[in-house]
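As a warm-up, study this chain.
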Amino acid sequence: MRRLFGSVRARATLAATAVVAVALVAAGAVVLLSLRSNLAGQADTAADSAARNVATQIAQGVPYRELDLDGDHPVQVVDRDGRVLAVSEDLEAISGTGAPDVTPVSSPDTGRDDDEDAPEVGEVGEVGEITWHGQGRATVDGESVAYRFAQVEVTDRSDRTVRVYAGASLQAQQDAVHTAATVMLIGLPVLLAVVAWVTWAVTRRALRPVEAIRQEMAAITASEDLARRVPVPDTHDEVARLARTTNETLAALETSVERQRRFVADASHELRSPIASLRTQLEVAAAHPELLDLDGAVEDTVRLQHLAADLLLLARLDAGERGAGARVELAALARERAAGRAGVTVRADAVEVTGSRGQLERVLDNLLDNAGRHARSEVVVTVRRDGDRDAVVEVGDDGDGVPAADRERIFERFVRLDEARARDDGGAGLGLAIARDVAARHGGTLTVRDAPAGGALFELRLPIA
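Now compare it with the structure written out below.
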């Protein structure tokens, strides 16, 4: 049960059904109230008409005992003293009008043509406005029903003011409301069942591609085959975008894993040579101490140390390490790293950037080392501003330059255009890769083009602090 209601499909079905149920109940209540109000209004109109009809007869001088009282509407005529002057035929009981009596007085002193105070023939009384509506009950011919009553005051021909009460049955209203409520009570569960079934079916169909993606991801996890991809549904909705994003993530992960494997293999290959050389020297020294090449052992040890440092820095950069938020003055840094290097000229303007001083030192050292290996006689370092946004460091040499086809490949790890020369100089093909990664982590770029002197010109571009 917990697993069932923990699914998206079940929660969506329950939510949709609950929302529809609330909406239907609210709409049903509004409909019932509106129906009841409309029917009550119609009853008031009918009661008004019946009351005015009787009042008009009284105003015209029709005697109370001769009033034409509509049998469909219970009528009660009451004077100001509360005496009942006339009631409709078969009216047995009444409530809600304020005068519960249904028996007229035996000999009313109004409505007689021979009354000495009666006005002249031709004069009529005055019918007032409807002054009251109320609800009560009346028993007519043995049947007790709820009624809406209207009250109107009228002055008869003897200048007496009486009240006329007339009622309209609410039985039709009650029957209509009861019928509507019954239909709603029966139809609501049926409609909710239909909504739940449709939502369940539609959600199942909509989530089918998601389940296919989940199954494929589970298979990829089990097989560790990152070359596989999840199926992309032939739609343009969120599920299709999820599948495409998942495949992009898998592709990036596959590239990262492959890059890591290649990195480990290349690192192992690079470490093998100096370790083997160092071991050979130590074994020879153990057997023949007089043949120990101490300088060669130290050189191999230093080479191992540099390679280990490069690998550690690359690992940190791959893990997302960013430069610290310190301010670094590039002109001073360039002069510091160029100091003591033969043939290096520095032309620098003061400009500050934000980042890691240690990592930026490493970039300059790698660029200067690379230029020094390939320069014939001169290396020029330039530090300048480029507008208000960028600081530019250029390291150029007068060597052979970098062929256009290799200007991106040289920034790949363990790539050396001159394999034998790089090994002799102790390079492992990591310096430029490290320099570009550090530049990227500082929000900048590192590119290469032809130098004015004919060699290679490396341009480091960083945002100004």
